[in-house]
Design brief:
Shape: globular
Helix content: 10-25%
Number of strands: 10
Structural class: alpha+beta
Strand order of the largest sheet: 4-1-9
Distance between the termini: 49 Å
CATH topology of one domain: Collagenase (Catalytic Domain)
CATH superfamily of one domain: Collagenase (Catalytic Domain)
CATH class of one domain: Alpha Beta
Number of helices: 6
Strand content: 5-15%
Largest sheet: 3 strands, antiparallel
Radius of gyration: 21 Å
Low-confidence stretches: 204-244, 246-284
Amino acid sequence: REEYSKITGFAYVGGACVVNKRLEKVNSVAIIEDTGGFSGIIVAAHEVGHLLGAVHDGSPPPTYLGGPGAERCRWEDGYIMSDLRHTEKGFRWSPCSISSFHHFLNGETATCLYNSPHEDESLPRVLPGKLLSLDAQCRRDRGTSACFKDERVCAQLFCFDSGSGYCVAYRPAAEGSPCGDGQTCNSGRCIVEHENIIPDYSQHTVSYLRRSDETDDYEPFNLTSTRSINDLRSINGGPFIPSTTPSSTMAYAPLVTSSPPAAAALFTSESPKTAPFAPEHGGLSCVDTMAMCPSLVARYSHIYCGTNYLTKTCCASARHCPS
């Protein structure tokens, strides 16, 4: 039970539309946990990506599903199919995910997705950030308040953690949340608010992918979770793919107070594919993993500059440290 305490989502890779009769269960579902503060929105997108055939960035395709996989897209780039979503890329699909969607949707297994949708009741078209304040979102998540209320919340909502004394973030503020100066969050960016209504696409459902003549005869069985279950085997002999959607992949930031805080640390509970953020390949991987890195260097360079923490977590901003 403790192994699953930090799991926030489950889904079968390529499971949309598939009923696995041999196992007597439906594969075309995902399970999402939400605290009531919209913490499950990005997780839901991640799990739907699995259902539509996308694996985690950096991973090969499942043998039963085929397709392009995602080995050419780096986990560290922080798109939706990673759990290192610390920038606005966390609101977008990687090129590998998009290729996987094309592969899956052009297969015979995706037949049910081409039906005519219907609605029993229309949903409100109001952005969720208009329904709960930043403090309210943090209270639902951690029982505390928001540390910052500026543009940083659009990429990462930092909530005060009473246990550690740090500000902790593991997801962005909900779309439409205020981010200062009358602006609101939109896809990871803080922009001038034009309207707070979600566009209604329900009357414009168009099948834009050309169906292929190829058929895929398989039964998806891979359940994505945070468990490491390499030793398990499915009923039809294939290996389970260990993957993660943890609630505990968090970035830590010091609470801004009148006196500089002690050094913080970056913590990822289960990310076996995560590599340290250090300059390599000509500096291509030297990126900031937190939106607050520039201000961290600007305000507390005398504490953080020269530390291993800053080099790994705020590699790009660390270049601006005083020599």
